[in-house]
Protein: Serine/threonine protein kinase
Organism: Rhodopirellula islandica
Amino acid sequence: MIATSTDCLSVEELNRLLDGQLSSEEFDSASKHVDECEQCQSRIPEKWDALSPIAKADSEEDSVLAESACQFAVAQLMTANVPVPNTAADLPIDQIGPYEILGQLGQGGMGMVCLARHNRLKRQCAIKLLPPHRVMEPGWLDRFDREMTTVASLEHPGIVRATDAGTHSGWHYLVMEYLDGMDVGKIAHRLGSLPVADACEIARQSAVALTHVHETGLIHRDVKPSNLMLTRDGTVKLLDLGLVLAGDDPLATDDRLTTVGHLMGTLPAMSPEQLLDSRKVQPASDIYSLGATLYRLISGRWPHANEGGLAARVLAITSESNRSTPPPLSSLEPSVETELGSFVGQMMHRQPDQRPSGSIVAERLATWSGDANLKALLKRAESTPASDAPITPLLPLATNPASPPPGDGKHTWTAWMGPLGWFAAAVLLATVVIQIKTDKGLVTVTTDGNDTKVAVEENESPLPTATLQKRSREDSKLDFANTNRDIVYEGKNLDAWLETLASEKEIGAIGRAMRAVERLSRGTSRRAEAAKATLDLTDEYGTWHVAPPVEHGGFMGGGFSSSPPIDRQFMGHLQESYKHYFPIPGVQTIGLKLAHGNQKARIASILQLRNFVMNLNHNTGSPHRASSAEVFFASKSKKSEGRTYIETLLQEIGSASAGLKSVVKEATATSTPHPRSPSEEANIARETAWAIAVRIVQESGPQISPPAWIADYVEEQVDEAVAKYEQREVDPETGQTKWDYADPNAVYGFSMGGFGGGPQANTTPNPPDWILPTELYLAAIEMRREGRVQFPIEFAAETLAHPRFNWYSMDDSSLNDVVQALTAIDPKAPSLIAFHLDRSFQEMDRQYQASQNAEWLHPLTYLQQRLQEGLASVYTTHVEQPAQAHDRLERLVNSLPKLSMYQQSTEDPKAFWHAMLNDLKQRSESE
């Protein structure tokens, strides 16, 4: 006799519950009791603990996996034999690149985050590590790379800042500023509800950061308390930018969203449109999530609470009913003003177009955040011990699949899902489909707005679900039955598919033919023929832009059309198929196409080679997994024939770059290039080809000398940039470079004020066309020291001091090293750098004094990093008239807090600015 819903379960009954050996009626009673009983949760057998190494760790209560019905379904899939990782084990690596690993800060699905210190700079930082085994799993490196590029591009005080990235001993790593504090999810877990002013200030600062994200055309998609970090100086930083995408469907491209504990764990903060159709996510979706987060921080519970279980929560968020409206905040927290409660409700309005923008949210929340004291809030959270009450485990994605669960248990599957019921395959066409993938099977939650159902599908193999699904679809089309005939795919052999590939014009059919040819040629002598036939199509369809394929060969629409252009669809299919040809015969076939293909083919081939050389390919599904580029080229360079192979490839890359150069010149002579024109594609491809060649030389070792064209390209780019610099528009009053504030998109019909508007004034100057990328800038300095390029010191100094120069260190280069190198070229370099920095300060001061609009101080935040990394001392030591420089900088610094997007960073910029002012003051007094 099973215990009633009010009686505690024995250990034997708990075991039967976890093993699925209860009837539906017994399951109803037992699961409801365990869901509400802390005592029973604390006595759950060890087999449950084995499913989660973080079962005893601090955890938010915002995970839907904390519901027993969902847990039990996943638990049955995971089984009791999953090994428990040793979270106390030594760190797997003690040195990565120039960084010493000091300790672990946290761990999650993406790997671990460690505290580190730069060997030379002795500065602490945080490093996110993607383990080598994750690189070989679908989607993980894509998301990691996307997070690297996104964090690097979103320069804002309210967003965690990236400073470096790289690969070391198979580990991919992202270096970020070290944030000393606690994520808001942990704070809320420890304190329950937060003071209204503090909660509003956290949301206000978050809204400011989100406004910057949205203004760059991106969407965060995962706003929740644990993705907000409160630092010790009271700053809120936006974290976890790996989901930031523009116009994409993350369910189709991001494996993280379909792994245990991610999509489901974020459900309480998701907007209705994000649940109903992830392709409809928009900036307003982030505002809904921020509103739900603010509701949670003030009230101590989510708008749609966990009382009715997973099904009720999904239905409440997505359906039009009384239960879809959360209780008013004032009914849960009496101190909440009616106006604030109404505004939070507006942030969570069911219709996206009825929600306020991020800038309006930041402005309105300032009304209620005046009494906030976030520093005190953090101290209170740190002094409050984490609850000792058992926390229901969050299930991680197992990395070592266990054996399949035994099938002799009574009601093994129906008991687990008894309360929620089974459903037919046709239900997958319903409005909402959420899948949780595990190593043992697939849990699917489906709702049509009126009803919600959950089903479990068990795998028959211990391989990961994503790999199984992909292989089963493809392998089922291969016919090995008749050994007297060729192997066929969908009824056709390799010859037939090659013929289809050469004659087919419909892009979806071309994609199928590419996949068939690649699979049928594996392990055969016709592999190179298959690769060449695939790449030959780039002569007609090649482009730089890619539309990623989704399931069943379809594509997602982006921008303002329902489907991408044909050439971009082709490139999506090409990238999915061609990656399996690397390194042999893929590299050699690309080399031939680079040397002899047309413009389209060269551009597309450079893109494919970049994916291999820069380690952007994932060949997990291929039985002939490609070696990394680093191992491939290092191995090749050890033998004479291998060195000839590499040298030939480098010359072919150079030949392609030269061919694209003539295309750029012809196009530029007849029209003005725009961001997506063929000439601009060719420009991007040439720059990428140069970077690829440099990487190949580095990975090949000292046996390979750089071909002459690599240096020639640097000289060419420097000469062009210097020529543009010398022809730049100069302000007749000051004799200095005239900054351009016009909206650069207005000429293409996308003005800041909307479509079709004319040029509008920005408050930050646009990047001039003579600014060099950092890699070329550093290469130019080295070649200037060798006397191989003309690199005027005036040009070099103004570039380094321009607010829009995108500086980041390369190969441990610091700004001090750069300044020293420029000084060795010309002793006037520090004075020129100081002069142009002062010019920037004068321009900001002039614009601000004339308008009293603090937005004109934006460039100061762009310069702050370079000043902190070495240019501050150059400025204070070499600027003319230090007394005037002091007064001017003091006015700017004192006015910085008026800037709408200004927040103090964890490195205490106030102290930094005061140190600069003090140095200027001392110098002025001594002169």
Observations:
- The chain has 36 helices and 16 strands.
